[in-house]
Structure formats: structure tokens, C-alpha cells
Write a structure and sequence with these properties.
Strand content: 5-15%
Structural class: alpha/beta
Largest sheet: 9 strands, mixed
Number of strands: 9
Distance between the termini: 102 Å
Shape: elongated
Radius of gyration: 30 Å
Number of helices: 14
Length: 434
């Protein structure tokens, strides 16, 4: 028996069909660099064809099924329309699974990437996984809005409560979509900044305004409306039970961003090395690998072993070690500067390097980023990347115009001169006496 005008029944049933093209257009805007419709989803299709095809297929089936359920529910005044929220939930869960899968597949496809580039690559892969999630989230949100319209069009009591739950869930999904868009832009600006090694700094700053997320609150609000609807329908136990069983699915889109980001971050942290220990001086330089030798209060020691190398009395110790740290001709020595490092020891080390025909030396310190106010979704990953090795580079030469080094030159003066030269794109040339 029909409880809604025929026109409203057909319009409500048609709304889920409209959701699909709207979601595709919204996603095209999302992945576009300048957020315009003149660019399509092909920017991510090449690397994620399987994931996007599966999301599109599941989404289209969900839209058709939602239209059928909306029509039957409105025409016969049954609880069939309550199934629209779970269908939207299936779409966003598919997007979340494919987003996590994308992260895993991309990380596993490049096992030989340089350790210097690994952090930037890992963040880029995490971003790609979130972009895949965006396809499912966009479609699920559009479907929930359509579901709300279809359920309100039915006009009967249980359908109106279901429509209210779908509408609140759609708003939560929209909040999650907007946050994902902002998070994607922040990651994009950091990764494409062109500043050597500063992408973590930029991402941390860009996501400071995204520290708090309202999507978990939106999830709780959906559940609260489900409880409210169940109480209101207590005189109709069959409808109340169906709302209690199917209504919580409307909360899936709102919570999908946090769940997917945390899962992707957990996978992405796998190939990253353990957190860099805070044992070196703070240094403003270029991204670098870890040191081979560390200059500190004990003189020079082999990195990660603590084995001292008595430079002043035993040149042969470092000469034997040099065959390990310079396997190819022309490779720079990487010398870490620990607290307590002295210019006397560094000068001795550079004299030995000159004797061993080593002409390039990287002085390595640490760079640390404050990520405590960054977005919750990627903070676990940024915590692992907040501390990194940085290097300033010097070249040992006999040129008369090179900076002469002696015991009267301060270590901080040498570092400052090297930083300035490196920023100009050149190595600081120094001259040491035998």
C-alpha cells in the first residue's frame, strides 16, 4: 500500500543513480592539482587502475541496489530502504581496503630505493593510499545524501528516522572528505616543495591547523541518532530492530579516514629504519645518510660500535678503516659531530683524510621537527620521521683561496661557513697543513 505520492517515490528511487556521477565529478576535482573539473581521475588511474575499478564497480552496484531498495521501501512501506546505509558502508570499506592495499603494493614495488629518499617516498605512498580512499569516501558520502533524500521521500515514520540517520552520516562523510582534501593538499605541497629534506617540516606546518578532527565526533553523533531513532520507534519493534542493526553503517564514512590513515601509517613505518638517536649536534644542512665516524668527547669512534680510533698516535687504524668507508674513489667521508666534538680532533681527522687522498668530507648532525601539532592521521608516521641526519660538505684542497684551518678556527665558525657555501650550491673549500 503506497504511503507516498507516486512522483516522490520515483524521484526518491532515482536519487541513488544521481549519486554516482556527482561522486565521480567530486573525485575528479579532488585529485586535480588546482581542484578544477578540467582534469580527470586519470592522474591516479595509471597507478591504481585495479583499486579504482573495483571501487567504481562496487559503487555502481551499490547505487543500483539502493535505487531498488528505495523504490520498494517507499512503494510498499517496508523497511527495505533501511538497507541504503549499509550499502554506502560497503563502498567506503572497499575504498579503505583498496587504500591500504595501495600503500602495501607501492611500498613493496621499490625495494632498492635510497635510504636518503626513503622517508619522502614513504610519505608519497601513504598519500597515494589516502587518495584511493578518497574515491570510496566520495561515493559513499554521495550515496548517503541520496539515501537520505530517498528515505525522506517515502514519507512514513521509520523511513524518516532512517533518512535522519543517513543525513547525519552523510554530513560526517562530507567532513571526512573535506579533511582528506586538506590533508592531501598539505602532503602534496610538502612533497613537491623542492626543498631538500625539508618536506617533513613543511607537512608538519601545513597540517598544524588540522590537528583536531571532527570525524570521530561525527561517528558518535550518527550512533546517537540511531539510539534516538530506536527509542522513538519502540512501538514498532520490527522497524526499531532493523534501524539498530543497519543504522550504524552510516557512521563508516566518518570514521574511515582515521582508520585508513592509521593502517596505512602502520604499513608505511615498516620499511623505515628505527628512529634516529639524538646523539649528534643540531645542524642545518642537506638530507644525508648516517655517519660512518663520530667525532665526540672520546675523539673519533666508529659509528654504531663505539670503537675508538686513536688518531694522534695511530694513523694506521684509520687508514685500515678507510678501505671500508671509501669503497669507491671520490666518495666523501661522513663524519658525525657529537656534543663535545673539538676542532683539534677534527683538524687531525682532516689531515689524515688529506694523507689518504680523501678530498670530500660530510660533517653530519641532526635535524628535528616538532610534529606534536600536526594532523592526528599522519602524526604516527611523522613521529618516526621527525629526526633525520643532515650534512654540510667541505672539500680539502691546496688552493690558495681556500679557507685555512688551524687550531685557532672555531668549529661553529667552520660549520657556519660550510652552511653558507652549501646554500649557494657549492662545497666549502678548506686547506689543511700536513
Amino acid at each position: 500500500m503506497n504511503e507516498a505520492p507516486r512522483a516522490r517515490v520515483f524521484v526518491g528511487a532515482a536519487l541513488p543513480f544521481v549519486a554516482f556521477p556527482i561522486a565521480v565529478a567530486a573525485y575528479a576535482v579532488f585529485v586535480s592539482d588546482d581542484h578544477r573539473l578540467d582534469r580527470t581521475i586519470t592522474v591516479v588511474w595509471h597507478d591504481n587502475a585495479f583499486a579504482l575499478s573495483l571501487i567504481a564497480g562496487v559503487g555502481f552496484v551499490a547505487c543500483v541496489a539502493s535505487a531498488v531498495l528505495a523504490f520498494i521501501g517507499a512503494q510498499r512501506a517496508t523497511v527495505a530502504s533501511l538497507g541504503l546505509a549499509p550499502l554506502a558502508g560497503v563502498v567506503v570499506i572497499t575504498g579503505a581496503i583498496m587504500g591500504v592495499r595501495s600503500t602495501r603494493v607501492h611500498l613493496g614495488g621499490f625495494p632498492m630505493i635510497s635510504s636518503i629518499d626513503l622517508a619522502q617516498f614513504t610519505l608519497a605512498v601513504t598519500k597515494e593510499g589516502l587518495v584511493v580512499l578518497g574515491a570510496g569516501l566520495s561515493l559513499a558520502t554521495a550515496l548517503l545524501f541520496a539515501a537520505a533524500g530517498a528515505q525522506f521521500a517515502a514519507g512514513w515514520k521509520a523511513a524518516r528516522f532512517a533518512g535522519l540517520v543517513s543525513l547525519v552520516g552523510a554530513v560526517g562523510g562530507a567532513l571526512a572528505s573535506a579533511r582528506l582534501l586538506l590533508l592531501n593538499d598539505a602532503l602534496k605541497r610538502g612533497l613537491h616543495s623542492g626543498a631538500s629534506g625539508l618536506f617533513v617540516d613543511i607537512i608538519a606546518v601545513e597540517t598544524t591547523g588540522l590537528r583536531l578532527s571532527f570525524t570521530p565526533v561525527a561517528t558518535l553523533v550518527v550512533l546517537a541518532f540511531v539510539v534516538f531513532g530506536v527509542i522513538a520507534l519502540r512501538s514498532e519493534p520490527r522497524h526499531a530492530v532493523m534501524l539498530a542493526l543497519l543504522g550504524p553503517a552510516a557512521a563508516f564514512p566518518a570514521g574511515s579516514l582515521s582508520l585508513t590513515a592509521s593502517s596505512a601509517a602502520a604499513i608505511a613505518k615498516g620499511p623505515l629504519p628505527a628512529e634516529v638517536p639524538a646523539t649528534l649536534l643540531a645542524l642545518d644542512g642537506a638530507a644525508s645518510e648516517g655517519p660512518q665516524l663520530v667525532l665526540g668527547p672520546r675523539g673519533v669512534v666508529v659509528a654504531n660500535s663505539g670503537t675508538p680510533l686513536p688518531l694522534a698516535t695511530n694513523f694506521d687504524a684509520l687508514e685500515r678503516y678507510s678501505s671500508l668507508v671509501t669503497p669507491t674513489q671520490g666518495e666523501a667521508w661522513r663524519v658525525g659531530l657529537a656534543p663535545g666534538a673539538s676542532m683539534d680532533e677534527l683538524l687531525t681527522l682532516l689531515q689524515i683524510a688529506r694523507r689518504l687522498d680523501v678530498v670530500e668530507v660530510d660533517l653530519i648532525g641532526l635535524h628535528e621537527v616538532d610534529v606534536s601539532r600536526s594532523a592526528n592521521e599522519i602524526r604516527p608516521l611523522l613521529e618516526r620521521l621527525r629526526r633525520s641526519y643532515r650534512a654540510v660538505r667541505i672539500s680539502i684542497t691546496d688552493n690558495a683561496d681556500a679557507l685555512p684551518l688551524s687550531q685557532t678556527v672555531r668549529l661553529d665558525t667552520l660549520i657556519a661557513a660550510a652552511v653558507g657555501a652549501n646554500r649557494e650550491g657549492r662545497w666549502l673549500q678548506v686547506r689543511v697543513d700536513p
